[in-house]
Amino acid sequence: MLKNHFSFFFIICICSGCYVPRTLTNSIVTLPTREFKTPPQKIVVANGYDLNEVSTRDNKEKLFNELANLTVRHTSDEISRRSEIASTFVEGFTVPILQRDSIIKALMTEHLASHAIIVEFFKAYFEQTDVVVTETDGGKNREAFYDILVDVRYSFHNWSGQQFDTLISVRKFHSSRNVLSGLLAAGPNVVKNSEDAADGIYANVDMYLKSFFSNTEQRQRNLYISKEFKEVNDDIDAYNFESAFEQSEKLMTSAKKTVAAMAAYNCAVLLEHLGQYNRVKYYIEESLAKQRMPEAEEMLLDYRIFKVIH
């Protein structure tokens, strides 16, 4: 059973006279979106993209080979961490295009694997997202903004052949810089920002493996505790989360739509904190049915594939 960790602190009220929230740190479980017809017994992860044939500078070629190795190694490590499935990896370019099916089967045979994940494509790069022009005493100032992106295409194989072919692209804001011309401005150097590229690998692998394996993540949730919710706050101060849930559930019948919506949302947050994940979605939807709440809408994203259980 998941161990709940919590920390509370007051945050600034978003409008005068509104219901002041406090935050609760919850652990959540993410469910896989795919199911194995036959659960793998062992997975081998390898690189099938020949980076040496890509036209790049030597230092960039070296970095990309290191990042490709990081991708296969981290994918294998995370499979072992997230499941009871055995996993191993092979670094370096191992699966050329010619006779690919037979080579992958040979790789699976060599490592006694029932399945294989092959990295088919890899790229780390910067993309300009905007150029903001401001008037100054000396003329115009142009500030260009850049995201760092990491693209990886994975193919999933069993003894029958390729089962899934998936391109995962992750992006994150990186930096901005003053430029002379927005159209001609060069972005940051990916080699000099190798740690950010590696972080992109970790995020990419995480997104890919979410399709197949459950995982645990942390979320910061607002919890409403002022005005009508004073008893809820008192229960939380006493670490009595079950009672806080019961008090919130009673307030769901309030004639005030705002109070009823907040109460249902509180119920969802408290059930999540208690690890009763299968009951959460019902209360999120009850909250949204009473009144639109951005917090509830955001929370619902984590429970899209959960069934509604009251």
Give a written overview of the molecule.
With 310 residues, the chain is α/β, with parallel strands linked by helices. The protein contains eight helices and seven strands. The chain has helices spanning 58-82, 100-110, 194-209, 230-237, 241-250, 257-273, 280-290, 294-300; strands at 21-30, 42-47, 86-93, 115-136, 139-158, 161-179, 215-224. The strands form two sheets. The chain has a five-stranded mixed β-sheet, sandwiched between helices. It has a two-stranded antiparallel sheet with strand order 1-7. Helix 4 (230-237) packs antiparallel against helix 5. The longest helix is centred in the first third of the chain and has 25 residues, at 58-82. The radius of gyration is 25 Å and the shape is flat. The model is unreliable at 1-17 (pLDDT under 50).
Layout: helices, strands, pairs:
Layout: E1 21-30, E2 42-47, H1 58-82, E3 86-93, H2 100-110, E4 115-136, E5 139-158, E6 161-179, H3 194-209, E7 215-224, H4 230-237, H5 241-250, H6 257-273, H7 280-290, H8 294-300
Parallel strand pairs: 2-3, 2-4
Antiparallel strand pairs: 1-7, 4-5, 5-6
Strand content: 25-35%
Order of strands across the biggest sheet?
3-2-4-5-6
Dominant shape = flat
Residues in helix, %:
25-40%
Please summarize what this structure is.
This protein is an alpha/beta fold.
What descriptors fit this protein?
310 residues; alpha/beta; 5-stranded mixed β-sheet; two-stranded antiparallel ribbon; 7 strands; flat; disordered N terminus
